[in-house]
Amino acid sequence: MNLNSTLFAQIAVFFVLAWFTMRFVWPPIEKALDERAKKIADGLAAADKAKTDLTLVEKRVGEELKKARESAADARLGAEKQAASIVEDARAEATRIVTAAREAAEVEAAVVVQRAKEDLRSQVAALAVVGAERILRREIDAKAHADLLANLQQELS
């Protein structure tokens, strides 16, 4: 065997094997590698998107919590103001009721005093008539007596 022909045969077999590999074996391997690379890239993109979405959601949650806290603080402040207003209104109403009751009591006391004065005047007038009758030991005319009593009451006022 000749070294040249063996070398030529090996080169021919190498090229046939290279052609067969490039034609039938390499495309499915390259396709599988491309699909795997695409899956990896899609997974990384999805992970990045999920990470971005997570940060956005965390930011929104923080804002919502802040709003909720502010809303709760506003509601509490409004409730405190309303409670203070109700207490103040109740105090004012109680003061008004006490003042009205005091005024009514004063008016009633004035009326009672006036009645007592009138009753006392009547009793004094009756006692004066009885005393005068006893002094004079005789009956006095009732009409004349009524006029005298009215004058006496006016003088006592």
Automatic annotation (TrEMBL):
Keyword Transmembrane helix recorded: yes
Bilayer-spanning residue ranges: 6-26
Segment forming the signal sequence: none
Membrane topology: Single-pass membrane protein
Source taxon at top rank: Bacteria
Keyword Cell membrane: yes
UniProt-listed Gene3D superfamilies: 6.10.250.1580
One of the Pfam families matching this protein, by short name: ATP-synt_B
Main location: membrane
Cellular location(s): Cell membrane; Endomembrane system
The entry's keywords: ATP synthesis, Cell membrane, CF(0), Hydrogen ion transport, Ion transport, Membrane, Transmembrane, Transmembrane helix, Transport
Biological role stated in the UniProt entry: F(1)F(0) ATP synthase produces ATP from ADP in the presence of a proton or sodium gradient. F-type ATPases consist of two structural domains, F(1) containing the extramembraneous catalytic core and F(0) containing the membrane proton channel, linked together by a central stalk and a peripheral stalk. During catalysis, ATP synthesis in the catalytic domain of F(1) is coupled via a rotary mechanism of the central stalk subunits to proton translocation.
Family: Belongs to the ATPase B chain family.
Subunit comment: F-type ATPases have 2 components, F(1) - the catalytic core - and F(0) - the membrane proton channel. F(1) has five subunits: alpha(3), beta(3), gamma(1), delta(1), epsilon(1). F(0) has four main subunits: a(1), b(2) and c(10-14). The alpha and beta chains form an alternating ring which encloses part of the gamma chain. F(1) is attached to F(0) by a central stalk formed by the gamma and epsilon chains, while a peripheral stalk is formed by the delta and b chains. F-type ATPases have 2 components, F(1) - the catalytic core - and F(0) - the membrane proton channel. F(1) has five subunits: alpha(3), beta(3), gamma(1), delta(1), epsilon(1). F(0) has three main subunits: a(1), b(2) and c(10-14). The alpha and beta chains form an alternating ring which encloses part of the gamma chain. F(1) is attached to F(0) by a central stalk formed by the gamma and epsilon chains, while a peripheral stalk is formed by the delta and b chains.
PANTHER family, per database record: ATP SYNTHASE SUBUNIT B, ATP SYNTHASE SUBUNIT B', CHLOROPLASTIC
UniProt-recorded name of the protein: ATP synthase subunit b
